[in-house]
Every structure is written in C-alpha cells, then in structure tokens.
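Pasting as-is:
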Amino acid sequence: MGIFEDIKEWMAFCDELVYQMRDFKSSEYKKGVADGVEMAVDMLKSYLKEYPELNDPKC
C-alpha cells in the first residue's frame, strides 16, 4: 500500500505546482507547462480510479 501513498503525495505536489505556475503573473510558457502537468495528473487519476485504495477527494 506504500505505493499508493507515494502516488497521492506526488499528485498533491503536482496540484500545488500547477497552482503556483498559473498564479503570480505567470508567462504563457509557464501556463502551458502547468496545463501539461495537470493533464498528466488527470490521466493518472483516471487510471487509478479502478483502485479503491486510492481515496483522492479531487477525483
């Protein structure tokens, strides 16, 4: 079950990174990177919905 905790921690980090990159007068480049990171995390969340051990309130 340790892998799920690590994945949830990584997803929380990515969510915070996306927030930081979109805020604070970000350039178009940073906003584009934030969009890509968010898309990757959303894809992972969709994949992991099949595992009940992952209880992410944002999913």
